[in-house]
Amino acid sequence: MEGGGKPSLQVVYQAVQALYHDPDPSGKERASCWLGELQRSVHAWEISDQLLQIRQDVESCYFAAQTMKMKIQTSFYELPTDSHASLRDSLLSHIQNLKDLSPVIVTQLALAIADLALQMASWKGCVQTLVEKYSNDVTSLPFLLEILTVLPEEVHSRSLRIGANRRTEIIEDLAYYSSTVISLLVRSISGTPKPHFSHYHLLSHTIPPSSASCSLQQQDKTSSNLHEAASDCVCSALYAIENVETNLPLALQLFQGVLTLESAYHMAVAREDLDKVLNYCRVFTELCETFLDKIVCTPGQGLGDLRTLELLLICAGHPQYEVVEISFNFWYRLGEHLYKTDDAVIHSIFKAYIQRLLHALARHCQLDSDHEGVPEETDDFGEFRMRVSDLVKDLIFLVGSVECFAQLYATLKDGNPPWEVTEAVLFIMASIAKSVDQENNPTLVEVLEGVVRLPETVHTAVRYTSIELVGEMSEVVDRNPQFLDPVLGYLMKGLCDRRLASAAAKAIHNICSVCRDHMAQHFNGLLEIARSLDSFTLSPEAAVGLLKGTALVLARLPLEKIAECLSELCAVQVMALKKLLSQEPSNGLSSDPTVPLDRLAVIFRHTNPIVENGQIHPCQKVIQEGTWLWEHPQRFYFPALVTLAALCIPTFQLLEQPNGLQNHPDTVDDLFRLAARFIQRSPVTLLRSQVMIPILQWAIAATTLDHRDANCSVMKFLRDLIHTGVANDHEEDFEVRKELINQVMNQLGQQLVNQLLHTCCFCLPPYTLPDVAEVLWEIMQIDRPVRARGPAAGGADPDTALYAEECKQVCWALRDFTRLFR
């Protein structure tokens, strides 16, 4: 702004267009700086008002609305008192004229009006005034509801310069007019016009009239968005009842209202409306969560009415597993409460409900009949089955593991179920096998005998799960050593099948861990497996697990044999390391010593023989023979860095493709997991390397990726990277680390902060905000001014984050900030 004078509207339009549409980043930056200067000037009031009157385009109106809100929040003192009323009238006129242009603009103007009302002491009864003026106009209801929604939210905003007395006065005023707002909402929901989901967004901020929400949920023609908003409203009400006795009228109203939704749930199932089914299950689950104490303490009486559990079991019968999964947290909590209660009479009341739940979960765990290969453990359904396994383990004490195990086996023994049913039953049996009493239990022996006799012609998934079951029954094998040979034979067949190899290796590890004494006679066989480890198709974890099991058995051999056997067990890994040391470091990927080193570490860690006083430890000789390793420590840092650099080149090429980040989230996950591990192990090496800046640039770009695992890995890498500059300040390399981190942050810190804030507002779901907050918190430990230089036009309270004394305060500030853009 040259000379500090008032710019023309044409110049402002050009700057706004440049901000949004200039392909040159430097042009955008100049426009942003110029508009920021304008927002801070006294001319912003008049220019914003003119832009909103002209309504030339969405961008200029949004800039003007945001500017008006910011000026009211931060520069309200610039206006004389006699201009407040005209500003109010102008804003109300603008929001009415622009209500159909963009919801974002409406939100900004609603915030401006709310902030004006909170600071304008002469505007008495603003809620009553707004309701009287706009409640009878159908087209004005959406923005009226928006104003009434943000008004109570803004009361506690530290951006507003109002004192404690004024805040108290406002809160009392809002409480006084709460009945007016509720009457408006009930009237607009129950009659015409057709309710909008914003009604229920506002209801969730007040005392929710459950009858209106529940009646809306029962209506067959309610839209999905409106149905979800009504469900949120009921859930918010249930969640708000912290003390049932204190809020008994509301609790009773909600309790009775939700119980009437059963028929509506069945209608949604009949119409195959999954969205509504999920909403009903959320409401039923929240109902059970709210009255959990009553359900446990007074089952079947009053608010402990067990019809609540019936509703959840009805949901558990839905064919989509996503429905029953919603209720898992409640079942966990119920099991925890009943376990602490330790009352046999109470437990007996819930036994039948848990039995029905377990049978439903077994059905949900069934694979599709046309499924080929082994069960996937990393997809959504695989994760669901793992959660089922955890839940079954937590609840089995209520049913009795022996009884449940026998019933499950009976379904296989007495009938001829399809393979998918057999696999699911075996999966549940594997979950509870370890909790079954081993004493005088013929069923366990019969199951083990039957499983190891399964023919190789059965479905691969059945073989896979049966191998897992055998691994879980290792204690049965230990008590019945006559089954050891057939069990090992069965597992060896699986080990030789690439589809079953990792599962078989895990089972062998379990057998070795529990049956160490019995397995001593099979050590030579284990040694042969260890020598041929790379010939099997094993995951790294499974291979290490096999070596761990072998080492545990090795420790039970006679002392005079341990040294020789340990040397043979280590020989393969030692040869691999010697081969690496004989190569040039430039060989890249082939020079990674991590695998043999990890394997050697697990062998030595778990070879713990019993050595009495005066005896020479059998591992001493082998360790002395391996001292050559420590003569070349520098050789192990460089190859690892070369490995990382070699991986980065093709990875960056892959991600540079159109939509590369979105199309390859697993690659992003793997890359930043590896980078994070390097930061943890050898930070200075990575910080000094040429790949550091490109990796950080891709990390900044990947913060926008809405993929749970990938985004989590990216944020963890960023957090660990920045934390390196302040961690372990007692170590010799601290000053080096601190200086290197400062160099990196000086180069890319501002870009990182800007991207994180943009990501929170427009790219990521709310549950990721704690991860982002941790990164920002670490940045603040390095340089708080960097964070302070972030975008100032958002309208969130800067003090909350800038002067935060703990990470959760940063998270709260982020939630408040992002709420303005959602």
TrEMBL record:
Q: Does this entry carry the keyword Cytoplasm?
A: yes
Name by which UniProt lists this protein: Transportin-3
Q: What does this protein do?
A: Importin, which transports target proteins into the nucleus. Specifically mediates the nuclear import of splicing factor serine/arginine (SR) proteins, such as RBM4, SFRS1 and SFRS2, by recognizing phosphorylated SR domains. Also mediates the nuclear import of serine/arginine (SR) protein CPSF6, independently of CPSF6 phosphorylation. The nuclear import process is regulated by the small GTPase Ran that partitions between cytoplasm and nucleus in the predominantly GDP- and GTP-bound form, respectively.
Q: Name one GO biological process term.
A: protein import into nucleus
The record's listing under PANTHER family reads: TRANSPORTIN 3 AND IMPORTIN 13, TRANSPORTIN-3
Please provide one cellular component term from the Gene Ontology annotations of this protein.
Answer: cytoplasm
User: Where in or outside the cell?
Assistant: Cytoplasm; Nucleus envelope
Keywords (A to Z) from UniProt: Acetylation, Cytoplasm, Nucleus, Phosphoprotein, Protein transport, Transport
- List the InterPro entries: ARM-like, ARM-type_fold, Exportin-1/Importin-b-like, Importin_beta-like_NTR, TPR_TNPO3_IPO13_2nd, TPR_TNPO3_IPO13_3rd
Q: Where is the Exportin-1/Importin-beta-like domain?
A: 103-189
What does the record note on quaternary structure? Interacts with (GTP-bound) Ran. Interacts with (phosphorylated) SFRS1 and SFRS2; leading to their nuclear import. Interacts with NUP62. Interacts with RBM4. Interacts with CPSF6, promoting its nuclear import.
